[in-house]
Design goal:
Elements: H1 5-17, H2 31-45, E1 76-87, E2 89-91, E3 94-98, E4 107-116, E5 126-134, E6 141-150, H3 151-155, E7 159-164, H4 166-175, E8 178-190, E9 196-198, E10 202-204, E11 212-222, E12 243-250, E13 259-261, E14 264-271, H5 275-278, H6 284-289, E15 299-312, E16 319-334
Antiparallel strand pairs: 1-11, 2-3, 3-8, 4-7, 4-11, 5-6, 5-8, 6-7, 8-9, 8-10, 12-14, 13-15, 15-16
Length: 335
Amino acid sequence: MRKSFFSRLVIAFLIIHNDLVCVPATSERDKEMFEDEFLKRLLHELDLTTPPNINRNDFPILDDYLDIEEESSTLEKKILEGTSLTIGKPFEGRIHFRMPSTIYNKIIENGKLVIPSSIINFDYDVIDLKVFHILENGTYRKIIGDRKYTFEEMSKANEIEISIYNDELSRLTSTFIEFDLEISGTPYKYNNDNYLLPSEEILFKIINGNPYITYSFFTKYNKRKVRSEHNTCDKTVNDGSCCLQSFKFDVSKPPWNFIISPSVLEIKSCVGSCIKNDRATVNSNFIRYSEETQHKTCCYASEYETIKVLYATDNLGTLQFKNVTNLIAKTCSCY
């Protein structure tokens, strides 16, 4: 049975007004491009032009505060056990840490490296501090945390707190029993036109004091698995049909760290081909007679999840809630 003119008109309207793109499901999909595109759309939904320069670890707010109801087929939640600190040992300008065995197999988040403020003894208006993970042979140097301080903020602080990205903290505590950290800073000064101009990066040598890392640790439990009603991509060679594909992003890292909660964004989209499905559906006649080939493989989101987001609206840390209703796919269908 052929589709009516009205049905075709509705389909065309949905395609135009929902910015639908028909794409094949592939395990080689570029995650970074997907992340960049989603960030642009999320900023638009939150009425932001650029991500605010703010760090979520500066806000003592847990995901449970939002009371978000997830509807995933496998729900994994975490239970806060407590907070702790591990004292480091200054060694050759670096800080050596040995993590306790009690945190193994735990979820470690909200980490901060705390060092004495006396290490900064020069003139500046703003300083951009970074924490690096260094291997013993010096061949590996990766940024794992950062924070900016104004001179006024630093003058009132006895200690410097630098937030560590959640995924990097998890990697350190699960992969390395011991590790070395290094701290650098880039000073900025205002010129006569009130523009901040950077100076050369300075590597700080920690030779005394008691630097330490604070963190929260959680246990996790799994809810009973429920058979999903939605066709999810299984990443096999036969996986080319219309399905739900998901990516997870840790929002403790730039440019996502203006999002205070949730701590992990699971982004879902509909990908794949509808050709082999449509031969056996009510759409088959319409597709066979359609002259527009794009309709033959159009997999679209027929239903969306609602996600409650707590985010910073500016660089001052002004917080706001918003329900995002049309970005994360829940159910996929074929035209």
